Structures are given as structure tokens and as C-alpha cells.
Amino acid sequence: MLRVLGILITALFAIATAVLTWPSFFRLNQTFPLAQIISFRSLISVAFAILTVILLLMAFARPIRGFALSLAIVAIVGTLGNGAIVLSRGIGTTELPAETATSVRVMTWNTAGEATDPTSVAQTAVAMGADIVALPETTIETGEQIAVAMRELGSPMWAHHVEFDVGMDTWDARSTTLLISPGLGEYSVIESSQDGSSNTAVLPSAVAMPLDGDGPIVVAVHAVAPREGDMQHWRGDLRWLADQCATDNVIMAGDFNATLDHMARLGLDGGNLGHCHDAASETGNGGVGTWTTDLPALAGAPIDHVLATPRWQPTGSIVLRSLDGSGSDHRPLVVQLEPVG
Known about the structure:
Radius of gyration: 22 Å
CATH superfamily of the largest domain: Endonuclease/exonuclease/phosphatase
Number of helices: 10
Oligomer: single chain
Structural class: alpha+beta
Order of helices and strands: HHHHEHEHEEEHEEHEHEHEEE
Strand order of the largest sheet: 3-4-2-1-12-11
Largest sheet: 6 strands, mixed
Helix content: 25-40%
CATH architecture of the largest domain: 4-Layer Sandwich
């Protein structure tokens, strides 16, 4: 009887390990509370490693040796599986390649509203040579301050924004600001973004179209967090974002509140969301956590992204870890893109 119970427990543990390691295979990657747990894949790998050590120590007790070793083998698979996925996405690069005449640099930083000094944002964007800056949780007033500061530092920007009707709610998450260099042409945020008729459900995203017809469509993203009461909105936000990548010339950047695991099955023709590919994972930073700054970067959740359609080739990226004390709970992500063909 005890042997049967041990086999049953081992089988259940193996199933749980498989679900945590390959959640999209079981179509559970957007299910509460698994969606929250798999956001921290590095910590899952560490947890399996610790469990492996405990089980191997338990195996010294002869009566439960076989049971403990069976569980330890499964835990080793969980450790290696999750660790391999993190490593395959990249655990960090330290610098960007040299800019070229055609390169476009994109920076995204959820500023947590007034928690981050506009001057610090401007200085960071200029130092990174950003041509596009997506700023979730940033009001247009703050965005204009950043744009003015960047102009004074020699990098003029046009400021665009979307703000949902906040009423008495002054929470800055109701605003998303997008800065675009004049060198990319003239842009305007489309009406459906402004009036919310086609947008992310709870927090605003901004879709900016080139008025001269030459530049990429630029989307500043802010999907709602997958809290228990917002799971349906969150899943809808990810589907809406995938739909924005239906054309061949799109750059998206912002706080997606989702990792690549959550995006599984939303890509087309090898993309991660629609036809868009995640630039950080293609350039060695896809496993680096951008949230929360309370955790080390390799322990955090990589939920801030820059994605682009195949017309753009990512050539480098960097998650800025030196700004963890700036006030925001997110780390900035900067990506360099090159046009293809």
C-alpha cells in the first residue's frame, strides 16, 4: 500500500513539474495562479534545486530511499528544464553595439508615475541614444518635461500620450506617454487609442501612426497586471497586442505584464505576439527580470519588452540594472534595431 502511495505521489509530482516547466503545452500558461508563478522561472529553477538537495539528503534514510530518489530525479529535471529555458533566453549583456546610420534604439521604462525623476529619465534616454521611448505610468505633463530635458541635452523628441478617463482617480497608471524622435518623421496617435474604442482594457496603450507613411507603426504598451480579478482583461490585452502585429512594420515597447511563457500560442509564423518577435530574447537578455527592482535582476520577472516585426532585426539589448534606486519598481530596457532589406 505504501509503495502504491509512493508511486502516486511521484507521478503527481512529475505532472506538477511538467506543468511548471512547460505550461503552454498544457494550455495553462494564462491560468490563475500558475500565470503568476511562472513569471519567476529563475526562482522556480532554484526552488527545484533546493528540493533536489533535500530529497537527496532524505535518501540516506533506507526506508524511503527509493521514494526520495525518484522524487529527486523529477526535481533534477525541473531544475535543468527551467534553467535551460532561462539560459536560452539570455541572462544579460552589458552593452549595445555601435549605432549605425540606419539603426533605431528603443527604450521602455515604466516610471511608476512621480516615483521617477523626469530628469533621470531624460538623461538615461539621451545616454542610450533612444529614438523611441515608451513610458507607461507617465502623464503627458511629465512626458513633456522629459522631452524638454532631452531637447536641452541635444536629443529633441515629440511627446504623444493616451490617457483613460480617470475622473477623481489621479493614478498615473491611467496614462501612457510615447516619445518619438523627429528623425523618424511625424507621428500621430490614432483616434481609437485616444477614445479607447480599440485599446488595452484597463490601462492605456498608444498606437502612433507615421503621417508621412515611411516609418514603423509604434505602439507604447501597458497591459493590465494578471491579478485574480483582472485575468480576463489581461488575456484580452495580450490578444489585442498580438493583433497590433498584423502588419509588416511595427515596433512595440512597454510594460506587457507578461513573460514569453504567457505569450505562447499568440504568435504567428514564428513570432511571439502576432508577427512580432521579442528583441531581448534574441539578443541575450530575455531571461533578465525587469520587475521588480526589489529582487536581483536574474530573479525577477521579464515583463517589459520591445517587440518588432521581421522587417526589423534586433542587434543588441541591455537591461539597465544601475537604476534600481531611481524610484520605479521596473528596470529600463533598451534595444537596438536595424531595418531589414
